[in-house]
Design goal:
Helices cover 65% and strands 2% of the residues. The protein has 646 residues and is mostly helical. Among the domains are: 98 residues, Arc Repressor Mutant, subunit A (Orthogonal Bundle), CATH 1.10.10; 206 residues, Tetratricopeptide repeat domain (Serine Threonine Protein Phosphatase 5, Tetratricopeptide repeat, Alpha Horseshoe); 127 residues, no CATH class. It has a three-stranded antiparallel sheet with strand order 3-5-4. The protein has a two-stranded antiparallel ribbon with strand order 1-2. Helix 18 runs antiparallel to helix 19. The model has no long low-confidence stretch (mean pLDDT 91).
């Protein structure tokens, strides 16, 4: 059972179905709060005693142990007797809370992410984050010295989030919508000059110049009376700009977008072909924002293709299909049915294109087939990828070339051991994209090389590509990049030999997938990563079935789980119907899992198949080509397999 903890209000805990966990009395909640303040670090028993009582009673140590035992029963009610706790653990002379599911930490991460996001996404993220507050932070313990640093920091961060949300909505042209919240915020925090500035700016943009100036006068008086300060330069500058109606005070993003969209609607008929092509451009931009933007983009993409086909113009349809050149990093599609329909439409359009049609749309159709057919072992998509790259090179169009290279990358999983090939594709993506100003594909190149260098054991190199990808993502508002680099840093901890820190990092990384809109990546990934981690370090597998399901990896995980539970006959039966892994990022890892199960039941036939499949990757780290997880050197797996049939 996953337990979530809350300190943005009274200290609380909820079970996986969001039912409140009974935490008993105030001392129990104090112990829990003190451990949360420590952020998974050890809190010695004597520190807990000193923090819980101004004058500790004689039986303080025994009382704390009782509180801990009660909390353990509440937090892990299904834990078998005499088995070690997983959440509230004993470490040396004290205790630690091993969790990443704390609302305050999630709030911090979201506010940090929003600070790097475009206004629309930032507004969505900050509104969600502020909704997690149920009252003052650590509301049960407002006077405890050990909560003071956290309370101060969280309250400051909440003020920043309120002001950040207002700023994002102002950028989107929503001045009237922020007035109430800013009015309340300035009343509660009259010393925050940025809040006064935003309130005055919102009033001005709402057409209320006199009230905006009155707010600035009130701010000046409040600062002078309460703090003895003159207003800072930003407030003075805003007052001068309002008085002269400075054009720079108008919202850039919101008003420009609204004006342009209105003009576009007036200029074009409802069925205009230009409108259809422009819609795909909007969907492409929406997709790279991740989350609901990516999901919305996918939902409307197929409709745009269908509308183009209805017009009976193959060249228009080719442009509409090929314009959705969103970089693809992961070799499992998010929606298999939709991908199949896109591929079918692309193939129909290729046949329908007239002789002499431009080469660019044809190359993009072929690249679309290659990208959307990822994870299959059919030869036709791989041929489409090669033909697309050849056409793009002849055309000398960098935009078409990087899309074609993306298709080639997605078709480079036909067998194990192709990390060097992908490394070369990534290098060309970086070179072409950097030279021609194509940042989303430059990021793709860095992520491809991150994966390839990880597989080849070059962790310093992979780290450099992760840092380069993060830097580009921050500069160009590409929030999904952080999903892959966060998971890579968890992988690095695993390869560096720190399983405890790696497991904690993997659980934290899984949070980045919650609203990312990428089920093809997220489904089953956390239990798979933890299974690989525990197998690598010879640890008990434990019960990983509680982590949201195995998704597509269940057939390869199940035999090992059955072996771990002491049912080899059931494991052997599961192996008899085990398919070969798909042609995607995780095939080496899945072959290793199959091989380990084959070793466990002495299945010589499967051991030989796994050995043959993994042999081309003998110099690689198993699974690390994902950039997400690892099962150690492939060579060690090959030696273990050979012992079964050698």
């Amino acid at each position: 059972m996953r337990v979530e903890f809350g300190v943005l209000g009274p200290v609380a805990a909820w079970s996986g179905d969001h039912e409140p966990v009974a935490l008993r009395g105030p001392r129990h909640r104090a112990v829990l709060a003190r451990l949360i303040v420590a952020r998974t670090r050890l809190v010695p028993l004597d520190v807990l005693i000193d923090d819980l009582w101004p004058v500790p009673p004689e039986n303080a140590a025994a009382a704390v142990r009782t509180f801990v035992a009660d909390l353990r029963r509440a937090l892990e009610p299904d834990r078998p007797p005499r088995t070690p706790a997983k959440l509230l653990v004993t470490e040396g002379p004290g205790y630690a809370l091993r969790t990443d599911a704390v609302d305050a930490w999630r709030f911090e991460d979201t506010v940090r992410t929003a600070s790097k996001s475009a206004p629309a996404l930032a507004a969505e993220q900050l509104a969600q984050a502020l909704a997690w507050w149920r009252g003052p932070a650590y509301a049960d313990f407002p006077d405890e010295p050990w909560t003071r640093p956290d309370r101060t920091r969280l309250n400051e961060l909440r003020s920043q989030a309120i002001e950040g949300l207002a700023a994002a909505r102002l950028d989107l042209g929503q001045a009237a919508a922020v007035l109430g919240d800013l009015d309340t915020h300035t009343a509660e925090h009259p010393w925050r000059e940025n809040a006064w500035r935003l309130l005055a700016l919102a009033l001005y943009r709402d057409g209320r110049q006199a009230e905006a100036l009155a707010v600035l006068r009130r701010a000046r008086a409040m600062l002078a009376e309460q703090l003895g300060l003159d207003p800072g330069p930003e407030l003075a500058r805003l007052e001068a700009e309002i008085l002269r109606h400075d054009p720079g005070l108008r919202p850039l993003a919101g008003e420009v977008w609204t004006a342009a969209a209105t003009a576009f609607d007036r200029a074009l008929a409802a069925d205009a072909r230009l409108r259809l092509e422009s819609t795909v451009g909007i969907l492409r931009g929406l997709a790279v924002t991740g989350g609901s933007g990516l999901q919305t983009s996918r939902a409307h993409r197929l409709a745009a293709v269908a509308a183009a086909e209805q017009l009976g113009d193959p060249e228009l349809t080719a442009r509409v299909i090929g314009a959705y050149d969103v970089p693809a990093v992961w070799s499992r599609v998010d929606d298999q049915d939709q991908a199949a329909q896109i591929v079918a439409a692309a193939r129909r359009t290729l046949v329908a294109l007239p002789v002499g049609a431009p080469v660019g749309p044809r190359a993009r159709l072929l690249a679309t087939i290659a990208v959307e057919s990822r994870g299959v072992r059919e030869p036709q998509p791989a041929e489409s990828a090669k033909e697309s790259v050849a056409l793009a090179r002849d055309l000398q169009d960098p935009g078409v070339l990087v899309f074609a290279l993306n298709g080639l990358f997605m078709q480079s999983f036909g067998r194990c051991g192709l990390a060097p090939v992908r490394d070369g594709i990534g290098a060309e993506l970086i070179e072409v994209s950097a030279r021609h100003g194509l940042p989303t594909y430059e990021v793709l190149g860095h992520l491809v090389r991150l994966q390839a260098r990880s597989a080849l054991g070059d962790l310093p190199g992979a780290t450099r590509y992760a840092e380069a990808a993060d830097e580009l993502a921050n500069r160009h508002d590409l929030p999904l990049v952080g999903v892959f680099t966060t998971w890579f840093r968890a992988l690095r901890r695993a390869i560096d030999g720190d399983p405890d820190e790696a497991e904690y990092a993997y659980r934290a990384a899984a949070e980045t997938l919650t609203d990312a809109g990428m089920p093809g990546l997220s489904d089953g990934l956390l239990p798979l990563a933890l299974l690989c981690l525990r197998l690598t370090f010879g640890r008990p597998i434990g019960d990983l079935d509680d982590l949201g399901g195995w998704g597509p990896y269940e057939p390869w995980a199940r035999p090992l789980l059955l072996l771990d539970r002491g049912t080899p006959d059931a494991a052997r039966a599961a192996l008899r119907v085990l398919p070969d892994p798909p042609a995607d990022h995780v095939q080496e890892a899945l072959w290793c899992l199959a091989g380990r199960a084959a070793i466990g039941v002495r299945d010589e036939d499967l051991a030989r198949r796994a050995y043959a499949a993994l042999s081309p990757a003998a110099d690689e780290i198993a699974g690390a080509g994902t950039g997400l997880l690892s099962l150690g050197p492939v060579s060690a797996q090959l030696n273990a397999l050979a012992a079964v049939f050698g």
